[in-house]
Amino acid sequence: MIVQPDIADKKEAILKSTLELIKDNGFHGTPISKIAKHAGVASGTIYHYFHSKDAIIIALHQRIKTQMVAAMFNETNSSKEYKQQFFDGWINLCKYFINNPSALFFHEQFNSSPYAKVVSKKDAKGYVSRFNEFFQSGMDKGYLKKMEYLLIASAVFGCITATAKYHVTGRFGFKDADLCKIANIIWDGIKSSN
Questions:
Q1: N or C: which end of the chain has fewer CB within 10 A?
Q2: Cα-atom radius of gyration of the chain, to the nearest Å?
Q3: How far apart are CA 22 and CA 13, in angstroms?
Q4: Which conformational region is residue 40 in: left (phi greater than 0), alpha (psi within -120 to 50 degrees), or beta?
Q5: 1 by DSSP, 3-state: which?
Q6: What does the alpha-carbon distance between residue 131 and residue 65 come to, in Å, rounded to a whole number?
């Protein structure tokens, strides 16, 4: 429980508490009353920052997408050769989820929920476009096979989340060398044969 009666940023406590509670209880098992108790704020305080639980969930989704983009496309990565950008980005994003299991489980639940349909159209010009631009650039420059974005996204991101889930649930403790091997398997599947 995050008890912070003097917190300067109650909004942050609400977001963090919601993320932790959703990891343990899911979307439906995380009512506003539980969020308020966990965050150490009154239920009415939440409504000063968010008009509903749905608004909190959408805000968390936007935050996690922003963090995913930052993990995959950091500044030092952009000056490297395309293949190395892919490897570094894949491994960084996988490590982001390994180090942030609440974000991993939130992301998985969100993408399997009706929320995903609501925000998918808005995301088309936001976070999704950053990933799409990267993979489209790889296809345009001949690094990747020409295919639909969703085919690449399914292979790349599906593998990242599955790998991170194996790690955070204790089924397999991946080391950096293991992550590199997995990234190489995905690269071999999407790289151009030219």
A1: C
A2: 18
A3: 14
A4: left
A5: coil
A6: 11
Please choose, from the candidates 27, 9, 109, 121, the residue with its C-alpha nearest in 3D space to the C-alpha of residue 64. 109
136, 139, 143, 147 alpha-carbon torsion, rounded to 10°: 110
For residue 4 the two structure tokens come to 């912070």
First to last CA, the chain: 55
Which residue is it, tokens 């429980």? 1
Q: For 2-37, write each residue's pLDDT tens digit.
A: 544 554 588 999 999 999 999 999 999 999 999 999
Task: Give the model's pLDDT for residue 76.
Answer: 67
Could you give the count of Cα atoms lying within 13 Å of 105 in the half-sphere of its Cβ?
18
Taken in order 87, 88, 89, 91, the sign of the CA dihedral is positive
Assign 193 to helix, strand or coil: coil
The answer to whether 41 and 10 have CB atoms below 8 angstroms apart is yes
* 151-184 pLDDT, tens digit each: 888 899 999 999 999 999 888 888 999 999 999 9
- The type of residue at 80 is K
Residue whose tokens read 């959703």: 22
Q: Supply the pTM of this predicted model.
A: 0.86
Inter-helix orientation angle 53-72/127-140, to 10°? 30
